[in-house]
From TrEMBL:
Domain of life: Eukaryota
InterPro entries per UniProt: Cyclin-like_sf (IPR036915), TFIIB_cyclin (IPR013150)
Name under which the protein is recorded: Transcription factor TFIIB cyclin-like domain-containing protein
Coiled coil: none
Organism: Clydaea vesicula
Species classification: Eukaryota, Fungi, Fungi incertae sedis, Chytridiomycota, Chytridiomycota incertae sedis
Matching CDD domains: CYCLIN_SF
Length: 241
């Protein structure tokens, strides 16, 4: 991954500010290096997301994904910018945010770089697939859904269909790369709309501490697969799709 793909934003960012650390706070050089890498990641990610006018949840998503791959890639000699540009575009793509050309412009990519970049995004998607499949097992759908059951009033049909919907999405990797909590929350909103419940998107977002804009995007992605979801739900009238 990132085979020949190297970028630099050194002209845009003052690296002396990024790596302004006090040696007395660290036990050894490795600890200092790890701290510097994390600080640089945070500041550079914030800079990119601000320049591209990306929503806050994309920033959170990029930081989360970056932590999964950064250490090995930096140790292997890949630049932080090379890793970040792929993760930023990957995060935008999974939430249907079109920022490809803005990223090309920000990083001053030529045609060859652009071609390599698109290949790397596909590679990154494969890399994250197994991680999300494993992390999804940490909590069950029932455990996550119980938070909404305790705080929101809903009938048994909404409860049943939400759990089935979320499990279909997870089992078939329909929203590959989206967190399990967001999948459960979006599944709940999907079924409250289908069954004309008074529960709002804002209420669900509050229960799960998810930005409403993020939940809305996840719901739209889920809704685009509604035919597959509704055919998988037990007792659904297929003619009402």
């Amino acid at each position: 991954m990132f085979s020949q793909f190297q970028l630099s934003l050194s002209q845009s960012i003052d690296s002396s500010n990024i790596f302004n650390t006090n040696n007395s706070h660290f036990i050894d050089e490795q600890q200092k290096k790890n701290f510097e890498n994390k600080l640089a990641s945070f500041k550079l990610t914030k800079y990119i997301c601000t320049k591209l006018e990306l929503p806050e949840f994309i920033f959170d998503r990029v930081i989360s994904l970056l932590g999964k791959v950064q250490v090995d890639k930096l140790d292997a000699g890949f630049s932080l910018e090379s890793i970040l540009v792929v993760i930023v575009l990957f995060s935008c793509k999974e939430h249907s945010i079109q920022k490809k050309f803005e990223v090309f412009k920000l990083f001053k990519l030529n045609i060859l770089n652009q071609s390599e970049l698109l290949d790397e995004i596909n590679n990154f998607k494969k890399l994250t697939k197994n991680y999300f499949r494993k992390s999804a097992k940490v909590k069950t759908v029932n455990e996550i859904f119980s938070r909404a059951e305790k705080k929101l009033e809903m009938n048994s049909m909404i409860k049943k269909r939400t759990k089935i919907t979320a499990n279909i999405v997870l089992d078939r990797n329909i929203l590959d790369g989206v967190s399990k909590i967001e999948i459960v929350a979006a599944s709940l909103y999907f079924n409250t709309l289908r069954l004309k419940s008074t529960i709002t998107l804002a209420e669900i977002a509050k229960v799960y501490n998810i930005p409403p804009t993020s939940l809305e995007l996840t719901y739209k992605l889920l809704h685009s697969h509604r035919r597959e979801l509704l055919y998988g739900l037990v007792g659904i009238n297929k003619q009402t799709i």
